[in-house]
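pls design
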């Protein structure tokens, strides 16, 4: 197996998950660059990988570009950094959201095509074993016609969470609990329902975390072209990070995700559960346990010269639902998709 040269851009909180994954994939990759605006953080990350160089400048890495780059930086930096890496010849896997606007996301996708490189976006919850099974059931018609969905995210973010130079700002974070936390629920439902979103009616509020610009609560009715409706709720002022809940309801049964455990209920059968993977958690529990699976598949796709499953267009479709929710909430009107630029 060819050893891929890997770079990591952004060595903050989430980088611990990547550090653990990259160590487990040591027979497949060599981490050669760690970049962070705070040099000490880059140096600390690099210290775990022999021969890895550290820098506070993206340009240093791009002068000797690795074959693939993981972008783990604040939301507003994803577009410029991804495009720079693609132009330097690197494949890119970026954390969510793909970008903060549809035009930026589409520009990133076009640049990947122009450069002949793969661009993908982290959607690690799609790799939960029970969710993979649910997708297979839905595609096989075992649930029948899908009638609707709901999701609930009740998490906790203290005021100190927003005491940094980009969190809590529309300009740099792009929103609050929807784009930063519940985007994963929206992505899962949109992927599982397998029908384009037709319209969004949304509401957002600042109820408890009132010193930030962005929302700490949101709810929405998200309508699919199939006629199904998705009831969405999220807040980050609960007492703790309660397990997320996502349900898909069909004419012949339903699937319910609680945390990382999926319960399948099909007509005429006893309900059964699919447990999460047994790999040890790294970082915060609410990040899930499936980055490793997506990262491993990203590398496999590079070797096989094929598009990773989470395409930039796919990630852009999830972003469009998020932006439609925000536009609906601010305008007080239903937003039909596709959104105007």
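designed seq:
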């Amino acid at each position: 197996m060819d050893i891929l040269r890997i770079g990591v851009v952004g060595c903050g909180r989430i980088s611990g998950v990547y550090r653990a994954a990259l160590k487990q994939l040591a027979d497949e990759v060599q981490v050669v660059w760690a970049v962070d605006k705070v040099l000490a953080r880059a140096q600390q990350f690099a210290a775990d990988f022999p021969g890895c160089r550290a820098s506070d400048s993206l340009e240093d890495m791009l002068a000797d570009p690795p074959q693939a780059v993981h972008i783990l930086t604040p939301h507003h930096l994803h577009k410029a950094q991804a495009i720079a890496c693609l132009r330097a010849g690197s494949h890119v896997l970026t954390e969510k959201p793909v970008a903060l606007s549809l035009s930026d996301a589409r520009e990133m996708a076009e640049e990947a095509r122009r450069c002949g490189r793969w661009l993908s976006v982290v959607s690690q919850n799609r790799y939960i074993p029970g969710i993979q099974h649910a997708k297979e059931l839905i595609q096989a018609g075992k649930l029948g016609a899908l009638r609707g969905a709901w999701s609930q995210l009740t998490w906790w973010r203290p005021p100190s969470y927003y005491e940094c130079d980009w969190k809590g700002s529309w300009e740099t974070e792009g929103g609050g609990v929807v784009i930063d936390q519940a985007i994963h629920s929206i992505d899962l439902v949109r992927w599982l329902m397998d029908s384009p979103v037709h319209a969004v009616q949304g509401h957002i509020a600042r109820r408890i975390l009132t010193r930030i610009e962005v929302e700490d609560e949101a709810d929405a009715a998200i309508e699919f072209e199939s006629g199904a409706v998705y009831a969405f709720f999220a807040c980050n002022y609960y007492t703790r990070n309660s397990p997320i809940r996502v349900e898909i309801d069909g004419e012949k049964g339903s699937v319910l995700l609680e945390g990382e455990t999926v319960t399948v209920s099909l007509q005429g059968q006893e309900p059964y559960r699919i447990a999460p993977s047994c790999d040890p958690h790294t970082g915060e529990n609410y990040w899930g346990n499936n980055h490793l699976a997506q990262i491993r598949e990203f590398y496999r796709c590079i070797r096989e010269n094929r598009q990773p499953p989470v395409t930039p267009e796919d990630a852009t479709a999830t972003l469009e639902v998020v932006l439609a929710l925000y536009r609906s909430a601010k305008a007080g009107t239903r937003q039909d998709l596709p959104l105007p630029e």
